[in-house]
Amino acid sequence: MSIAITPPRGNATGLFVSSGQIARRVLRKFIRSPQLVVVGTVQGAMFLLIFRYVFGGAIAVRGVSYVDFVVPGFITTGVLFTAMYASAGMAEDMSAGLIARLRSLPIPRSAVLIGRALADTGIQVWGLAVTVAIGFLVGFRVHSNWGAALAAAALVILFGFVFEWVFVLIGMFAGSAQAAQGFALIVFPFTFVSSAYIPVATMPSWMQGFAENQPITVMVNAVRCLTEGQPAEALLGHPTSYFVIRSLVWSVGLIAVFAPLAVAKYRRG
Amino acid sequence: MVLEMTSTLEAAGLVKRFGKTRALDGLNLTMQPGQVMALLGPNGAGKTTFVNLVATLIRPDAGTLQVNGLDVARQPAAVRRNIALAGQSAAVEPTMTGRENVIMVARLFGASAADARRDAGAVLEQMDLTDAADRQVRTYSGGMRRRLDLGASLVGRPRLLLLDEPTSGLDPRSRLELWDVIRSLVASGTDVLLTTQYLDEADHLASQIAIIDHGRVVAAGTPRELKRRAGRNVVEVRVRDLSSLDRVAAILTGIGDGPTTIDRPTHSVSVALSADTERIFAALRPLDDTGIAIDEVSVRQPTLDEAFLALTGAPKEEVA
């Protein structure tokens, strides 16, 4: 049997088309896995409700209502929990042989990682929208101005892109989706030992040292100051620009380390 | 007139190490255009490593490997435009439909959206998946997934198709269906390099077989040549009483062309015959005259173990 198929082309497929196709696949997979969408949303909502109504009463924050304190924490750390999905997805593709197939195709080798990063960033935007919506439902309000709030949203999307590289690298090393989920538990110390859910000042002093200087705290505080303005600045002891600049430096630094590592790992297979 | 043809594959002294293991240890192999070549060997022989080298997924540590005259180490991008890979696991996306999967791969091969759609339709038809084309792949059977995987690799119109254990893990019927598909590809002129652990699979599909063990080609030739060397038939006799096993073995050794194998737990003796079937009857007649109680006589093709034994002079575990 012979089939009429377009003859082979001389050149490699362009980066734009190939990244787009990869991104489309990752998004389709996400949208068509309702358990991921529903479980992710319910889980995020549940944690937010627990902190807002169960722990919230016991946590006093000077000058800012607890809901206004904690929702920026959830919005920012939500990025890490969504990124766990990227690492499981990458591990699954590696073990299913899909990455081997893609690496044997005449496409730029960077297309697979770029396509995935674009799609996962899209998924991050979805996760952000859900958390913000629930936040408003439980009483969160912006006390700065909407321009600053939009800047906060842009920062959160940037953080999502930053952690994408960290988690894709974890996914490639993990070998299986389950192992990737296991490794991704590293998000817990980083999110809980930070300023995301409770003020760092209530922690033992040795722990404060870690909490104050790790990137999640800086990122959460940047988002908190941008949405809550002066009361948050007073609480955290620094102006908004202090946290925003530091969070941008962390972002650039993390991408500079992890993106080349991920690309190198992908190239070597 | 002598036509200088470029080999589809030309491997010389190919070495690939993983840590201390030499997965390929000086492998030499030539594959001519218009062939289906089967790499036959046990697990860990180096088959998949070789396929991954051809697919440019890994790089050789020493030696050279050319695909249609292109060097895999120096011109990997050009090699990738000549080949397509279908691996041991069906590399398709379960949450996408069959058609979406093939279209995606066609687009990655560089087809325009319209061409990709048309080519996907043609490939799905060839793979007999038209009815299931718009269902998500997670509803497919194992055999359907393999056929889709094969179709996806064909959509780029490769000159050389690499099939790494294409039927492993499939039930017998799906295996036969996939064989039919692979044969139809061969008829349409695609060169195929496939790996398998099964002699019968290599026999059904390939025009050339290379037996690989411990990272080297230990024997190569057409299926006929190899089987002639391995013994064309194996006669196996199972006796009722263990005590008569040695007498039967002595008789079979007298007519056999290879070493006689005695398996005491199953009360059986087997020997390879390289010549025609008349010898089988000649062998059984004296057996009948002895009056030894025999439970079962079977004539079959040599197993991979026996082929190894005959072609390498050692059981496959012990080949150095």
Structural overview:
The complex is a heterodimer of chains A (about 270) and B (about 325). Helix content of chain A is about 75%, strand content about 0%. With about 270 residues, chain A is mostly helical. In chain B, the strands form three sheets. A six-stranded mixed sheet of chain B has the order 6-7-8-3-9-10, sandwiched between helices. A four-stranded antiparallel sheet of chain B has the order 2-1-4-5. Chain B has helices at about 45-55, 75-80, 100-110, 115-125, 140-155, 170-185, 200-205, 225-230, 245-255, 280-290, 305-310; strands spanning about 10-20, 20-30, 35-40, 60-65, 70, 85, 160-165, 190-195, 210-215, 215-220, 235-240, 260-265, 270-275, 295-300. The two termini of chain B are about 45 Å apart. Chain B is an alpha/beta fold. Chain B is globular, with a radius of gyration of 23 Å. The interface of A and B includes residues 13, 32, 101 and 102 of A.
Q: Summary?
A:
By secondary structure, chain A is mainly α. Chain A is built from twelve helices and no strands. Chain A binds chain B through residues 1-13, 17-18, 21, 24-25, 28-29, 32-33, 96-98, 100-107, 269, and chain B through 52, 55-58, 77, 80-93, 95-96, 100, 104-105, 107-111, 115, 118-119, 122-123, 125-126, 136, 152-159, 162, 184, 187-189.
Topology:
The complex is a heterodimer of chains A (269) and B (320).
Chain A: H1 15-31, H2 34-55, H3 66-95, H4 98-103, H5 110-137, H6 146-174, H7 177-183, H8 187-192, H9 205-213, H10 215-228, H11 230-236, H12 240-268
Helix pairs in contact in A: 1-5, 2-3, 2-5, 3-5, 3-6, 3-7, 3-10, 5-6, 6-7, 6-10, 6-12, 10-11, 10-12
Chain B: E1 9-18, E2 21-31, E3 36-40, H1 47-54, E4 62-67, E5 70-71, H2 76-80, E6 83-86, H3 98-108, H4 113-126, H5 142-154, E7 160-164, H6 172-187, E8 191-196, H7 199-205, E9 208-213, E10 216-221, H8 223-230, E11 233-239, H9 245-255, E12 261-263, E13 268-273, H10 278-290, E14 294-300, H11 304-312
